[in-house]
Amino acid sequence: MKAIVVGAGMGGTSAALGLRKIGWDVEILERVREVRPVGAAISIWSNGVKCLNYLGVGEQVAKLGGDMASMAYYDAFTGATMTQFSLAPLVEHVGQRPYPVARGDLQRMLMDAVGADSIRLGTEVVDVTQDDDGVTAHLADGTEVHGDLLIGADGAHSKIRQYVLGGPTTRRYSGYVNYNGLVPALPEIGPADQWSQWVGNGMRVSVMPVADERFYFFLDVVLPVGLPSERATLREELTGYFAGWAPPVQALMAAIDVERTNRVEIHDIEPFFTWTKGRVALLGDAGHSTTPDIGQGGCAAFEDAVELSWQLATNTLGVEDALRRYEARRAPRTAELVLRARGRCDVTHGKDPDATAAWYSELRASDGTDIIRGIEKNIVGGPFG
């Protein structure tokens, strides 16, 4: 049996590993000639790590991951600690440490695990057809690739999604711009084993530890969509947005390399529940494009990959039936995550100022138990519980 996977990102490569695990041949078709991850890093929570463990790359992920032992929130302007607590209770309860990981490192590792001979870069799929015997990907160069199923793991702007749904979907702007990158894990910024966040006025500055003594930083600024931004003035933009913020934030600003900083307008897509069309199914952002506010976008793609392989391995009524069972398992779970991330986004970024002020007050009174409970709620519900 052969699977065609469209997209060589984290979803596509993890899907390939899952399909190989159950004995399928896999060919990945990727439109670009060089895969460049969107964003500097990713927080792989325990559910995502468990999936990668199952897919056979757990040791590699652990080597790439940062030691995130604790979590803290600070007042944006005074720098005063709002709450600070260990993540050990979370790890003990769910049975797996989370790992913040540099996206470039993770992407290279997953592609290496799949193998270059199974990935065709610079290969654009322009159409899909299928019949009772299989599915065909029609390529921009006029050639065709045939398989028994096709997985659309081609991201938030997915062409395969349009084929499955019969038309385009609308992306929804979440109201903020995310700036992200990597900096050295300097002590004047924060502890090297802690996820540190500074919040105020509906904005956020965050640093997470990744391997090689680096911090992954992300800065959230509430801005209109489509606002012009130039690389040459990016440092002035950032220092202006965060003028008056606490000394650790200013240390971060000084450490940022603007030439390697990403600026992303954050969107999501309204959840939908049709993921399959015959022998074609969606996976990852193609099926559930979300904001990053609960850190579950990549984790959900890894869950998809595991569930897909399980349904194909354990159901014997044919490929189409197995894909429908995959859809039934994954669409409700990811819809809930998309909406939960949207709700968290609105509170964090001041959509309702009273709700955001109430959240700040809650943080100041928190011992971390409620925050850990919220993180755990996001983690549970996937293939591994």
TrEMBL record:
Gene: hpxO
Gene Ontology BP, a term: purine nucleobase metabolic process
Cofactor(s) of this protein: FAD
Any matching Pfam family: FAD_binding_3
Organism per entry: Miniimonas arenae
Enzyme kind, highest EC tier: oxidoreductase
Keywords of this entry: FAD, Flavoprotein, Oxidoreductase, Purine metabolism
Pathway(s): Purine metabolism; urate degradation
Catalytic activity: urate + NADH + O2 + H(+) = 5-hydroxyisourate + NAD(+) + H2O
Record protein name field: FAD-dependent urate hydroxylase
InterPro entries: FAD-bd, FAD/NAD-bd_sf, HpxO
Span of domain FAD-binding: 2-339
Sample GO molecular function, one term: FAD-dependent urate hydroxylase activity
Family classification: Belongs to the FAD-dependent urate hydroxylase family.
Enzyme Commission designation: 1.14.13.113
Top-level taxonomic group: Bacteria
